[in-house]
Amino acid sequence: MIKEGEQRKTRYWGEYEVTKVVQLEEPELAYSAVVGEARRKYTFVQIRWKADGQYKLWFPYWVTIKGKERYGQYAPMMSEASLLELLDKAIRKEFFSQNFLNQLRKTITDELNSK
Fold it and tell me: 23 - beta bridge partners?
């Protein structure tokens, strides 16, 4: 698992620091005709690139099949409940700027008021 404070390096983009991490309390259960039951552990990670100091969001996940855990290699697919849990945790852990949260509130309020 990824831990806050870790220093890492990518092959093409350079070095970064893991600044914040939130993850699901319980993995999301999934079924596949090929492998049967699988569990997906989704995370939101905030990183800071060493080269320019910019913060970015990363969405890694791990898949457990028949007791063996491995890193997810594709874009994550998750339920609304899992997304909401991660967003709630990320907001409470101050992943996002005040401007982002204000825009999110406006978008949600506008959508709810249009119904």
Answer: 43
- CA–CA dist 57, 71 (Å, integer): 17
Residue 79 token pair: 């339920």
Beta strands in the chain (DSSP E): 7-10, 14-23, 28-32, 36-49, 55-58, 61-65, 68-71
Q: What is the pLDDT of residue 18?
A: 97
The residues spanned by each domain of the chain are 7-113
* Structural tokens at position 7: 């220093």
d(CA 51, CA 56): 13
pTM for the structure as a whole = 0.84
- DSSP letter assigned to residue 7: E
Phi/psi of residue 112, each to 5°?
-65, -35
> How do residues 67-114 score in pLDDT, each as one tens digit?
999 999 888 889 999 999 999 999 999 999 999 999 999 999 999 999
- Residues for the chain: how many in total? 115
* Cα–Cα dist 62/40, whole Å: 6
DSSP conformation class of 96: S
